[in-house]
C-alpha cells in the first residue's frame, strides 16, 4: 500500500470525503461520522505501523543502509565494467582474482545484501543469521586478499561488521524477530 510521508495511506482522504458527504447534518450524524472516521483511522494506523512499532531503529537503519548501499554498489560495479580506468586498477593486482570475477562477486554479494535488507524490514529471523554469515565471509575474503597498506580499510571493516553483528543480536532485535509475525 502506498504511503504518504505522514504515514496516512492515500485512500484515507477519499474514504473520509465519502463518509463526510453522506448522511444528514444533524448533531447525531456528525458524532456518528466522527466515530466512523476515528475507527477507520485506528484500523489503518494499527495495520500500517504494526511492523514498525516494535522494530528497533537500529535495525531500520541497518536494513535501509544495506538496501541503498547495495544498489549504489551494483550501479558502481556495472559502471566499472565499462570504464577502462577502473578495469585497469582492478587488473593491477589490487585483488588476487581477475577484474571481471571481482566485479561479478561484488554484484552477487550486494544483491544478497539487498535481499537481506528487505528481509530484515519484513521481520525474517533468518536474515540476521545470513547477514552475519555474509559479514564473516567478507572479513575472511578481505584477509585472504590482504595487501600491504590495506589495514586502513580492513580494520574499520572488521569493527563495523562486529558492531552490526552485535546490533542484530541485541535483545530488542531478538524480540523483534521472534515477535508475532516472525
From TrEMBL:
Statement: the UniProt record of this protein carries the keyword Transmembrane helix: yes
Key words, A-Z: Membrane, Transmembrane, Transmembrane helix
Chain segments annotated as transmembrane: 57-81, 101-121, 128-144, 150-169
Protein's name according to its UniProt entry: Uncharacterized protein
Amino acid at each position: 500500500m502506498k504511503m504518504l510521508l505522514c504515514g496516512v495511506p492515500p485512500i484515507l482522504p477519499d474514504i473520509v470525503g465519502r463518509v463526510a458527504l453522506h448522511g444528514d447534518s444533524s448533531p447525531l450524524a456528525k458524532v456518528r461520522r466522527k466515530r466512523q472516521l476515528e475507527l477507520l483511522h485506528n484500523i489503518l494506523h494499527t495495520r500500517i505501523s504494526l511492523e514498525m512499532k516494535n522494530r528497533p531503529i537500529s535495525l531500520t537503519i541497518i536494513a535501509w543502509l544495506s538496501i541503498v548501499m547495495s544498489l549504489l554498489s551494483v550501479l558502481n560495479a556495472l559502471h566499472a565494467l565499462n570504464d577502462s580506468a577502473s578495469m585497469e586498477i582492478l587488473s593491477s593486482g589490487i585483488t588476487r582474482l581477475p577484474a571481471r570475477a571481482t566485479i561479478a562477486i561484488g554484484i552477487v554479494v550486494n544483491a544478497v545484501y539487498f535481499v537481506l535488507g528487505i528481509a530484515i524490514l519484513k521481520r525474517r529471523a533468518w536474515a540476521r543469521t545470513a547477514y552475519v554469515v555474509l559479514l564473516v565471509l567478507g572479513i575472511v575474503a578481505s584477509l585472504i586478499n590482504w595487501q600491504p597498506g590495506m589495514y586502513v580499510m580492513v580494520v574499520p571493516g572488521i569493527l563495523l561488521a562486529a558492531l552490526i553483528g552485535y546490533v542484530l543480536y541485541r535483545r530488542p532485535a531478538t524480540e523483534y524477530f521472534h515477535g508475532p509475525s516472525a
